Amino acid sequence: MYFYIWSFFIYSFLGWCVEVIYATVNSRKFVNRGFLNGAVCPIYGFGVVIIIACLTPLKDNIIFAYIGSVLLISSLELITGWLLEKSFHQKWWDYSDMKFNINGYACLKFSLMWGLACLLILNIIDPIIYKMITLIPVTIGNIFLGMFFILIIIDVIVTIQSVINLNKVLKQLNEIALKMRRFSEEFGEKISSGSISFLEKGEELKNVLNEGRSYTSRVVEEKVEIMDQRLEKAKEQVYELEIKRKELLNKGIFGVKRLVQAFPRMKSNYYKELMEELKEKISKY
């Protein structure tokens, strides 16, 4: 178990390095990849530990080791993606645009690539890592593992709070959008009903016009003044809602910028359009 725990942390770090290199090559800038804030990608650590535990006896049989690696890593991606989506209502990665994918959680292309990577790990990298771990005195090793556990637990708590804040911001933005739409519809109905009422009195106004233009002018001016007041009040309410909306967007950017950059394919189950707007705004910073 001691070696498995060390392997988890080491491969989580190495996996983070791979993700950073991959993102840097594609975006030409540094991106802190991974669900957590620290320099670790736990899914890599879990994946490699599972591969080592299950397939080390088969590592000399390349075909079985390769097939086993593809199946195990694909299953891990499926389970992890599903759990993250159900827990946080976000789809953190999406392979839906790639051929032979399973609900966007896993795809054949990357599964085959991970199969090759696992063969490399089983036969070349892991024996080296194992020897490096044996060079660390067990007492010192346990101290370091304890420190790593504390750091990763803190990181998990901070990251989960960031995701919760993201969902709160998206919910509040959605509520503002609904208020603005509802207000627009109600104001439009008032204008429409007022216009209809005004037209219905057209004949009456024509009669009044024949009797005296001053009275007609006064009635029209009163109607226009009422409409102006309503319009001004509507502008103020819309302006206040827009200010609050911008504040929430800025708050969302501050809290989840790293997560959105780390998972550019992330999608929200409930607020898809708002998530895309937030991602677009973050990309400009």
TrEMBL record:
Pfam families linked to this entry: ABC_trans_CmpB
InterPro entries named among the record's database cross-references: CmpB_TMEM229
Regions annotated as coiled coil: 217-251
Transmembrane parts of this sequence: 6-23, 35-58, 64-84, 105-129, 135-158
Keyword Iron: no
Annotated signal peptide: none
Keyword Glycoprotein included in the entry's annotation: no
Keywords attached to this entry: Coiled coil, Membrane, Transmembrane, Transmembrane helix
Protein name: ABC transporter permease
Organism name: Clostridium vincentii
